[in-house]
Amino acid sequence: MIDLGLAKLALIGVVALVVIGPEKLPKVARMAGSLYGRAQRYINQVKSEVSREIELDELRKMQQEVQSAAQDIGQSIAQDLAQTQRELQSAWHGDEVAVPEPSRLAQKAKNFRRKKLARSSAIPAWYKQQHGTKMRVTSGAARVAKHRPGRKSAHSFF
User: Fold this and answer.
1) pLDDT grade, residue 100 (50/70/90)?
2) Residues 116 and 110 sit within 8 Å (Cβ to Cβ)
3) Which SS3 state, helix, strand or coil, does residue 22 take?
4) Residue 85: pLDDT over 70
5) Which candidate, 30, 121, 112, places its Cα nearest to that of 72?
6) Cα torsion through 105, 111, 115, 116, rounded to 10
7) Each residue of 120-147: pLDDT tens digit?
8) Shortest CA distance to 58 belongs to which of 125, 117, 122?
9) Which residues are CB-neighbours of 84 under 8 A, at least 6 positions away?
10) Residues near 135 by beta carbon (within 8 Å), at least 6 away in sequence
């Protein structure tokens, strides 16, 4: 950033007064101010569009993850259902029943919980505060006491 002190601004003002003249200086100053305001509005607009695009991209990624997780769960349910159906048919016909292995399902659940924890804990605190995500958990009794009509809160500063 340019370091402009009071002395430098005064020097710029004197040079502008000499070069432009006293009758045109207010018009030039107004025009410069309006151009500066337009530039700031344009920059803020570009920043907001970029942040919107980033958020939209994150939402798309999250949607793809949820869809893939749903497909995986659907496939695993279909496989388990087919295996159970085969076991029931083999038991109906008198064949030996193979004991299902629950460790594969438990491992999938453990991996899913680990991935979910990594996704949810990777969000910075400033982002959660900015977008309304709860930062602290309050008990049900505390919420009721906070919103109870006719009661004054215990944290009054008056």
Assistant:
1) low
2) no
3) coil
4) yes
5) 112
6) 40
7) 666 666 776 777 666 677 788 887 888 8
8) 122
9) 100
10) 125, 128, 129
Tokens 């920059």, located at residue: 43
Q: Provide φ and ψ at 123, rounded to 5°.
A: -85, 125
Structure tokens at 63: 């949607």
Instruction: Classify 152 as helix, strand or coil.
Output: coil
Q: How far is the C-alpha of 127 from the C-alpha of 55, rounded, in Å?
A: 11
> How many whole angstroms separate alpha carbon 9 and alpha carbon 4?
6
> Any idea which residue has 């309050």 for tokens?
138
In this model, does residue 151 exceed pLDDT 70?
A: no
What pLDDT digit, counting tens, does each position of 33-58 carry?
A: 899 999 999 999 999 999 999 999 99
